[in-house]
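User: These chains co-purify. Model them together.
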Amino acid sequence: MKKKKAVSKKWPEKWQEVNPGCMVFIPGNASALHTGSWRAQRPVLDIQKCIKCGLCYIFCPEGCISEDSEGFFKANLDYCKGCGICAHECWPEAIVMVEEEE
Amino acid sequence: MGKRVGMEVGIAAAEAVALCNIDVAAVYPITPQSHIAEHLADIVHDGRINAEFITVESEHSSISACAGASAAGARVYTATSSQGLMLMHEILPIVSAMRLPVVMGNANRAISGPLNIWNDHTDIMPQRDCGWICMFAENGQEVIDMTIQSFKIAEHPDVMLPIVLNIDGFQLTHMIEPMEFPSQAQVNRFLPPRKPFVALHPDNPISMGCFNMPDIFTESMKAKETALRNSKKIIVKIWNEWGKLFGRHYRPVETYKAKGAKTLILTMGSMGETASVAVDEMRKKGASVGLVKMRLWRPLPIEELRAAIKGAKTLIVMDRAISFGGAGGPVATDIKSYLFQDKSRPRIVNYIMGLGGRDVTVDDFIAMTKKAAKKKEDTFEFYGVRE
Amino acid sequence: MIEIRWHGRGGQGAVTSVEMLAMAAIEAGKYAQGFPAFGPERRGAPVMAFNRISEKPIKIRSGIYRPDVVVVLDPSLVGLVNVTDGLKPGGVLVVNTSKPASEIRKVLNYKGRLYTVDATHIAREELGVPIANTTMLGAVLKATGVLALKDLSAPLAERFGRLAIKNVKALKRAYDGVKTAQAA
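Assistant: Joint model of the three components:
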């Protein structure tokens, strides 16, 4: 049995194309799925109020928040689902959720 | 050829595993499998083989540990029985769906309740639909041979499926009888180290056991079903290879004086040998009786079975389990569905017998054959039940 | 084919006896089976174990109901358990007892071939314990001729290591000392 090359389609078309045991051979291929499109609200950071405590980074269930060169923690909007947990946990109230439509 | 020894079959099963260069064994002891677990633990402890013996807290854990180790590329073995197998049930379809070549010895024992520790096939039948290759040994020699063969079959790149080898509890596991072991060199030649299709490793990350949405689940199931069906070809090929090397031949369906017989008895497991003595006795008195023994239960070898029963008028199917409220014993039910549309087929008389350690003697087989001769249509009933 | 049924009490080594006998027979080139009455171990309870020995491969895997030989390991079982149940006409009964054969016959209402030996006494003297299972093997060999005395040495050595010499001595004493009482 040969290993199959990366499948660009979302699903294999035929059962014959299913990898043995539904194995996925491309490490980190979940990054191709931009879950940011699921978002209805986005977090907006007020750097005047931010104390760089990193609580948002710790609590983000998506792991999409990272520290930038100035020490601020910012969400990667390609993956942020807009759950609002960071805003809820941010006790200096530096993060607020804003409707995507606005 | 190896040395002929007298040994308990359960101990021999562990010794056979020791010949197979396993990496990991995760076994939880349960009667009547305990001697396999204990002896294998001894072998590992004494340093006779270089393997990890994982002392798990339950059978759910033993099969899970085996799945993990197998995914990491190890050659793994486990053994269980009855309630232990029932506890493994949740994990069994996952192991086959992940295409992990785990080898399991199952010391067949009745499932509770009421509590009973003796031999029948009610433990393996509920696992029938889990996608494992499922086979039955008839005597101690077959336990040794089939254990070794199982690793080669399971790990074959065109199979990659788990195997459960059924070893009748007590009737086989606790029997001291003569057997021959192949030498370590012979086994090494027959069974080289496992070359996994892929293995979990930090340097080469992959994902196993992935989530399936409705868009792909049906295709996955079709792929699994096809893999199991296709495994028969490889099983037969490896059995033929074994036959050439060791002179002991294995077939999906074994026959004994079956050719041209009007009545055929069909068995699985250790009772086949006793049935063969009954066939001899009935033949001496001129009866046209033969024996068909299913070695391979999943995938069900229907072509071989059709060939074996061709021309027979009556097929007596011995089931050591029952599907309560269903069409009869699981073996007979499967065979009946396959033969349903055949233009000519034998009448199928299905006996539910040998449950929970009820002994089945030569006289019982003769009595069942006589009773079956009087049946005019397909039937299913308990044999030997007091009423 | 010869079929043997052993009666003992749980923990007295009836299973070891059938194991030794089966292994010795196999070692001597014969075909043999040795198996317990399947079930949980119960120390002190009356138990059974079985042997089949044959020149040809043995196919039967059911229990033994019509034995050629019955061996009673524990004297207290006579009269408690129906030890002669199913014993074939012309079969042999081998009993560990200190009592005279006539008394055994009376209790069991048994008229067939009978062999008696005080194996517990021998075991106590030779092994220091009243466990008569290996000792009784000697009586069985003498009574049945199923194997030669020397055939047992290797399996006993493997099982008992340095204690094997004592076991072999006890076994030989029972072999030489077993009393036959011809069919009445």
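Chain C has one domain: 2-181.
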